Amino acid sequence: MSAYNPETARTAQPPAPDTQTIIGLLDGLMPLLLQLQSQYPGQGYFGQPGPVPSDFSIGFGNLAPPNPMLDHQAASEMIEDINAGALRTLSAYLENYANQHAGLANAVPLVTQAARCFAMRDQAQAFGLIWQAYRAITIARAVDPQLPPPRVAVSGPTSSASVLH
Which pLDDT band, with edges at 50, 70 and 90, does 95 fall under? Predict the structure, then answer.
C-alpha cells in the first residue's frame, strides 16, 4: 500500500466534517447534474436507458421528503467516496509518474496532507487539498505535455500494445 492511499490512512477517529462546506459544494454540483440530465430527455438517470421518473424531472429534492439528518449523512458519505476515489487515483498516478517528472513534486505533499485529512475524517479539507493536487498536476501537464492525465493511472496505458493483448 502507498503512503498516499486513503485505505492505509483511515483511523478510528470520530467524524468531523465541515457540514456547511460540504453542503456548499453539493449546492454547486446539483445544478450541473440537473443541466446534464435535461440535455438527454427520454433517458433514465444520467443517460441510462429508460424513462425519467416524474419526481426526478422536478428536481433531486423531490425524490423523498426532506430529512436534514439523512441529507447530511448522504452528503457526507458521497464526499467521502469522492475523496477516497480521488486519493486512490492520485496515489497511483504519483507512484507511476512522480519519480520520472520533477514537475509533479508539488502534488506529492498535497496528496499526503489530503490523505491525513481523510484519515481524520476532515472531508472538506481533504477535498480542498485534492483540488489543489489536481491543479498542480494540470500545471505540470501544461509544462510537460507528455504527462498523461491522472485517470490514466486507474485505466492504464492506452497504447495499442495494451489494447491488443
Answer: very high
CB 116 within 8 A of CB 33: no
Give the type of residue at 144. D
Q: How confident is the model at residue 39 (pLDDT cuts 50, 70, 90)?
A: low
Question: Helix 19-38 to helix 68-97 angle, to the nearest 10 degrees?
Answer: 80
Segment 59-68 long-range contacts (CB within 8 Å, at least 24 positions apart): 59/34, 60/30, 60/33, 60/34
Length of the chain: 165
The residues near 132 (Cβ < 8 Å, ≥ 6 apart) are: 110
Q: Which three cell numbers stand for residue 63?
A: 425524490
What is the enclosing helix (H) or strand (E) of 95?
helix 68-97
Q: What are phi and psi of 55, to 5 degrees?
A: -70, -25
pTM above 0.85, yes or no: no
Q: What is the mean pLDDT of the chain?
A: 74
Rounded Cα distance between 93 and 34, Å, is 31
